[in-house]
Amino acid sequence: MALSKMLIGVAAALLAMPAQAATSYVRAGRLIDTEKGVVLTDRLIRIDDGRVAAIMPYAPPPAGATVLDWSGYTVLPGLIDMHTHLADWGQTNNVAEPLLHSAQEIAYVGARNARTTLRAGFTSVHDVGCFRAFSDVELRNAIARGDVEGPRMSVVGAYITTPGGGGEVTGFAPDVTVPADMRVGVASGPDEVRRKVNYLFQHGVDSIKLIATGAVLAEGTEPGQQELTEAEMHAAVEAAAARGGWVTAHAHGAEGIKAAIRAGVRSIEHASLIDDEGIALAKAKGVFLDMDVYNGDYIEEIGTKEGWPAGYLRKNRETTDAQRAGFAKAVKAGVKLSFGTDAGVYPHGKNARQFRYMVRFGMTPMQAIQAATVTSAALLGWSRDVGALSPGHYADMVAVARDPLADVSALESVDHVMKGGAVVR
Q: What is the C-alpha to C-alpha distance for residues 250 and 201, in angstroms, rounded to an integer?
């Protein structure tokens, strides 16, 4: 009897032990170290159970090991886009477009967009809003379960916006009733903002997106006009912090940007009309600017061709050049600049088009790559997991045949993509 009990105990102990980690190797011809800003040549990357275990000068791995030969490529960490809209229909010339698609349809559209984004080399995203609340939460969860192929997602669930503000579906007759799931984040006053923030976290969001000013692509709002008060934004920041979360603010106008920074947000989306005082304040407070400096050209070209509303095109023209001038100033000032594109306004999978614009307006190719890796990882709060290829990080990486430090547009067409040690392209 004693022997039987002993054997049962040994068996139970063996079952409780973790399975031996799956080990594989990648040989990288050139490896961009985004943490140090240098390039290493002919490196062997060891991957254990989906994470980087070691990086060493190349030497033949153990006999029989699984080795992926990327010796003819430049290898860098999986890219991060801090401003996507995966769980929505794309932008069109119809202001009522969000009302034309069911929640069920949006689920399938989101899955398609997620797959496209991952295969373009973007292995992590901050998805900053969808019209049908919590579509992004369910997409994130489906990816995490392995049901859907896509990037790692941090999501906001819905926009916190003032009634009729830049986060509302607007532009049609006043007697049209907008579905309740498209107005989940509409709030007035600090107390209601707190309730809405708590509601969003109760339903699984990771962070909060405030619509601090009017929007370019919304009828009845102006980008320079502040919509949420500083008190409302501060209430959101406090409520999110109590839940272990953080806040970003859509803010085009200079005063709205400064109010959001004073209120304690972690980052500013767009920052199109930022002034010198706003740049200095962002620098002093350590606030990230997430500026979509490519997007204006797409809106001008396609919006004009497809007949987007005249107000959209006017507002885009009033903000595009100003945003790029502000970006150049922010680069020179040493403000923390992440990589955010507003993918969803333009087709998903084209995210890397922004790299050459960031270089055109003041960054080096290495700085632009760091913006889309270590800097964006820091903004997400995910620096221990993504944004770099060093021991402990997920084995998320892309490989390109051309040298992106010589021509950063090489990242617009990546050759291979890996997420968590598994090759997806």
A: 19
